[in-house]
Amino acid sequence: MDESYVLPPPATPPRRPPERSQQPVGAHFTTPQKRRPPRKDSAIVNRPGVALRQQRLKEELHALMETDEQSSNQSVPTSVDADIEMPDVEDTHDDGAEDLDPPAVDKSLPQDDSLPRRLLPDTATEKLYSTWLALVPTLVPAYLGYLQASQARIGQLPALRQWTCHSKVCLKKDYTILCLHSHYLESNIFQGCGCISVAQVLVKNGLFPTSPTSPRVAVSIDLLDFYFALFERSADAVSALASALKSIYQRRGFPILNEKGEPIQDPFRRGIGHAVQWYDCLRNRPEAMVESAIDECLRYIMSHPSSSEPAEGAASDAGSFLRRQQQEDTHGGGNDGGDIHVALDATFSQRHNISAGESPWFYEPKFFLSKEEVDAVGIRITAARKKPAHKHDSQVPEAALDQCEKSYQAADEKKEKTHGTKFDDTGLMALVCRHDIVLFLANVDTPGEQQKYGIALLERLFQHVPAEATVAAFYDIGCVLDRSIHAYDLLPETIVSRLIFATSVMHAYGHQWACQLVYNPRLREGLGLSEGEGTERVWSKFRKLIGVTRSSARSRRIWLLDRHAEAINIGARNELGNWIRSRLRHGVEGKTLAANTELGELGVSVGELRIQWEAQRKAQLSLRQHAPARLKKELDAVLNLQVELDAVEVSLGRLQTMVGTDEDHPIVHDYIASLKRTHTRTIQKVESLYSSLNVPQDFPELQGLPLEFVRILLMARDLKINIRKRAIGSFFEWDKLNRAAGGRDQPLGTKLHQQTQKAISKRTPALITAIRKFNKYCDELEALYEDDWGFPLPQALPTELGALRDEPDLLADVWISPVASNTPKWLEDSATRQGIRAMLTLDRCREERRRLGNEADNLCRWYGRELSGVELALRSPNFAEISFLLRQRKEELLLLQMLWRTPLVSALRFQFHTEEAVRIARHLSGSGDPRPIRWVHVPSFEEQMEATDGLYDPDSSAADEETVLAHDALDELFAYDDPDPADSAAVTPSPRGSAATVSEAVMLKRTLVLSDDSPEDMLVAVENPLPEASSPLVSQHTDRTLPATPHAIRFIIPAKDLQRLQRPCAQLSDDCINTGAQVLLRHIGTGSILGGDLAILSTRVMSMHRAEADDNSIWRDCYNTEFWRKNVWIIPIHHLVPSPHWTVAIVYMKEQQIAYFDSFASQDRWESDAAAVFQLVYKLHRLAEDYKHGPFQLDGDWVSYPLLKEPVQKNGYDCGVWVLACIAAILRGFHVVFLTSEQITEFRMRLFALVLTLTEPVNPVH
């Protein structure tokens, strides 16, 4: 045969005809196929030409490899190129490099797809990761600069900022980079050199490279941020984003083609996968810098206790971890309830395929325990179990604990819950607080749920909690773990003494009743309404990551899970206020009302119910109530022998009947003698076995009872335990399904909803059958029962699930010991059992209310401590680089106080902590500045004209601090409407465009500085500004008028407003303020005013300004004051929300200051009103110029400050009186007034008398 001949590939076999079972005539039984012959009968046939074909393929492959090496030596630099393809070990949806045009493959050559997939990273991948890890820290300054420039940015991206290197020795290189944005892509040229890499230039321009050294593609940072926000909620893979971008680009006319002009199938997936992974590493660094700065400042504050607020029961500083995870809420819920409630559980749905392989390390997880730490705990547990077990006096009988251990798979450490040969990581175990915030995670890499994971998580928790804090751990097998910890030295005594265990609520009902009496949180004192099911809710939030993480590399899987846990925690932290309000409203208040109603209907006193509950616990925790398994098995053997004995007796009777009188036959006598001997031996066996059971010794109460009665009794007891497990599980499934269908929980799809409902319906008949069998046992026991036994019989259960849910007997075990002459009420009276359940609900609600109050207090303290750390960091020059990030954190905290307000904590508490944080930071920093200056920029007319040609550039403003007032809020300042000459007191304004109206020297940049510090030379009036006066005898039921003067118009005060002024507890109206101010002005005069002449504007001016009234209306209301001639303006301000309140602003034109008086000293109200007054000043300035009454100078910066730092008003109705008192003090030559409550009441009476003196009736009666 010619050696050059190569066999063709085998032909495709023809299609096999369908079997009869697959034909459309119906299903039929088919003959099984014949088994293949064993291997020993098989013959090995060598195909000719195979060796030659393999040799030719190897030669072609060797030639290709030599060609690649030569081309790479000519064109590839020594450093790691960005175009190295990532190994297949990465996740198929977000791995790889960023080649837009992959190399063409010669399809004529045979392709070898049988190469094994690489499970470990190769050298090239390790080098690539090392290059990225070295590059990321160098990008932090550029990234911070971009974040600061893009903060609160509106509109398009700024122009590209190219780097120009002036050094003559740097080797410069231009890079043509394809930039991917959300709705378009473009190609730009960027230059890099030895001073700054091209990656740094890209980051400065808001782009992230897809390669560390020679990128050809860069992705918009804004697009990556959007992807991360979307991934937290949908877990869409990178492939989804890459495909979406490709579709958008094609629809917008940007097709992606290779060098041959052919469309690329998947151009962006690998590059975006790189960008996503390493950009997340970059954005973690500023977050870590902020956390580190706050931690350093908090440690400094803790080291100066004299400057910080009292601890108020707070234990100690638990470090950045507990500050970050909100685990400072040491609840203090009671001696037995634990200070901190946590839940731990494992899930085996978060597995990892072995075939996905591993990638190099690149991320330090925040929540995961290291494998070394967990394995060390496992080694210690194994060594401890080799020693003899300690004697532990448990409240729960060992027999009950043994049954609990057998009934739960989690208790079996050797049970394999996953396929060990397919998955290397088999699941996760989490430790969460009772607010569903993840504290720690452990990666499960064993087939079963071993105790080392839970113990390692608890050990890590105790490293962060205060030394005196106690912890209550909720675990589905908490009873078993509690016994193991006390039987062996699995944990140090310092931890064991402060650790209590409880079962989660839904898992508790699957435990033995004796176990529930100790570990069920609804029956145990001090645990409140904590249910311990937080891990289940956390796993539901992790569920969306299953498909992504299962096929990712192991390191990437940990990265994705860890980052998702942090996103879950941030959301849960923001919802803590809603959580407390919901738990208070639906949990405490709702259940308290229902329990009180039930107790009222039952008519049983709580004291009697407590006595019965203690008696029930004592009786049902007795060892007598738990028959050992040996006894039940041997009882079955005795009953089997009894059946055999009865059969022998029947046989003897039949034989004797058949034989009759024929006794002379020898065979008959032999049979009868043999049967009698067998019967005698059987009786002896039964008696010896029954005596070996030690029923009288183990259970003296059962002595003398028939074996049949004891057997049925024990069978009924075991069956009821099984019924309870099935029923509680069915209730839980139905509730979960109904909530999902209604949208309250994560909704199930229609098909999945129907499948789940069908599966539950299939399990329901088994539960009904078990109940019917139990009821049959009850009937049999009642038939065998005799009155002199004094034995309580079990009660039948309802077969309808709705009635079974409310059945109090469902949770109680079958009683297996007789009682005294009087049966306890808790055993025979259903009303007493219902009352005990209602009483326990009330107890748990009271504990929960107390715990919620402590948690709300701790939220306030955490808020105050965190804010004080941020305030101090803002004042520290060491953190100037991240000051804008600290300001963002401060704004987030200030928003938290709005989210965390609850009925248990008022807004005043948060306001106190806010002011205290500022005080602490100011004291420790030694700075007199109350906070970073915030500037309000009012654009000039010139700027307004320039804005029409392009967008306003905030970088061109001299005020480069935080912008508080947006430009769109000032549109009406430049809305120049033509006034009606008839409505403007015959004053004709000059044309808007005349040069005399607007001059560049006048219209300068105008800024307002908000300062907490008042002038040091401020004069305070501490005495009543009005002399004593007596009210004239006039009627107060008619309107009164203040006559006009040459410089003032007439004012009318209606009778109802006059009565408001007279009543001590009435709020003043607009007419009261306006008339009262004019009365004070005419009585005191303006000779003593500091600063010159004074103009008192009407209360309507500010109201119209805020309501965006037209210029004519404002001008008509204030032109008669001739404000443009006055140096001091008094502007009363009326607030309607959140409640009616009066304040006043005093504008000093020459000093360019705005003093603000608020009797409640509200910081937020001052900041809002100062900006509004500042706008009003410039609006009046413009109106005066329009009507040829100016101009007066407004150049330079303005300052606003509050006149009061502490509230002086003690009630809710004297705010208007305080405003008038302040106006009177200003007229008398002071800056502010400070009176006592008695003095302000006296001032009101004197002002009323003065009004009556200076006014006259509108229609006098003759």
UniProtKB/TrEMBL annotation:
Q: Does the keyword Hydrolase apply?
A: yes
Q: Does the keyword Membrane apply?
A: no
Q: Which Pfam families does the entry link to? A: KDZ, Peptidase_C48
Q: Where is the composition biased (Acidic residues)?
A: 82-101
Recorded family membership: Belongs to the peptidase C48 family.
Q: PANTHER family attached here?
A: CXC1-LIKE CYSTEINE CLUSTER ASSOCIATED WITH KDZ TRANSPOSASES DOMAIN-CONTAINING PROTEIN, CXC2 DOMAIN-CONTAINING PROTEIN
- This one is known as Ubiquitin-like protease family profile domain-containing protein
